[in-house]
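Sequence only, no structure available. Ideas?
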Amino acid sequence: MRTGHTSPARFSRPALRKIAATGLATSLLVTLAACGGDDENGADGGNAITVWTLENLPDRMQAQEQIAQTFTQETGINVELVGIAEDQYSQLLTSAAAAGELPDVIGALSLAGVRELAVNDLLDTETAGAVVEELGADTFSEQALALTSEGDEQLSVPSDGWAQLLVYRQDLFDEAGLPAPETYDDILAAAQQLDSQQVAGFVGANIPNDVFTEQTFEHLALGNGCELVTDDGDIPLDSENCVGAFDFYGELIQNYSVPGAQDVDTTRATYFAGDAAMVIWSSFILDEMAGLRNDALPTCQQCNDNPAYLAENSGVVTAVQGPDGEEPAQFGEVVSWVATAESNADASQEFISYMMTDGYMDWIGFAPEGKIPTRQGTAEEPTTFIDQWAELPAGVDTKAPLSDFYSAEVLDALRTAPDTIQRWAITQGAGELLGATLGELPVAQSVNGVTTGQLSAEEAAQQADEAVTEIQESLQ
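Reply:
I predicted one. Tokens follow.
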């Protein structure tokens, strides 16, 4: 599934200590070597690095292999590129750490994944800091750097991200004279006014034990000042801010949505059929909504004649604000390059710098709809990367730039999305807690309870608070 909605790997310090020192389970790896010289070049590690990438789909591996080959030709540094499936990452990393066989570099690592490595002292933060300093911190999204640092220490080099979006039918909103749905009040008012027998006012995920449900709720909760954990380590899910978020989402789903269980596939299908006025999804929906992917084509009546109808008649809201929130916020993911504690530091720094400069657009070009640059340009050309991004061909079965389908307003919202992305627990230094909660998904279970009418907002918030507190205590 290609949605961007994925769960980060979860492992703990005790797990790393207890695992026997075993070699990598190579049968679980897809390995592609970017050859550029003989084996003697890497005999002492000076001219060779191993790079793990979580971008492991075959077409993306081929593209990365080409980038690595070009890097090797230019630098003489050999790169062994290893594609890692996300559901195998934790097991492989734990085994590699126990065996002293960590890769030099890991790419496309989630925010929670970066924090888990930091907790387990598996990061070479000096290399990450050196890359950011070399390229210029002011060329990166300030928020992306904040999410990937701890105090003054840069943990990783943020490369790109995908944004959670509230996608809405601009044509229906315009006909009804409604403003863009940027606040809780505006979203509820629009859902109520546009909801009918033919079109649901809103669709959103509500399945328990599903990370997409948790991500959808977190997107809305952040804008109301609802956090998973405070700076002091307290769990505030039973706060007024969180109760308000549960109440808001429960009202949306119970009163203005479609009946039954909703997940990543059904919410997209409902919006693509023209049967919903609003949906929350990741930016990976954009190429699909433009009719560029055959197995996820829009099916609305108008789409029969114009597959890009929904793309041309939809708007997006990135950050949402609730009545108790201090500022608009949105959920999203920022992925990074990291150098590990066992890295060949000089070669790793050169490789990561290359991936953020000469190789950057080829890296972003795998899927520009879901890889928004966190480095917008260079000191000399401050917007060169984000300008090129808008013109990169997106899609799977058909390729075309997003600018062929979306307005300047939509693209501008996406350009700045990395600056408003927030995440539960990350900036509070509780990445391990986040990883653990995503393993058990207690918030998604409470969301299901409130959206199905089994729990009141207060009960859902209290249930989530108690479950996360229990998880936190188990980590101590």
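The chain has two domains: 13-161+334-397, 162-330+422-475.
Hope that gets you unstuck.
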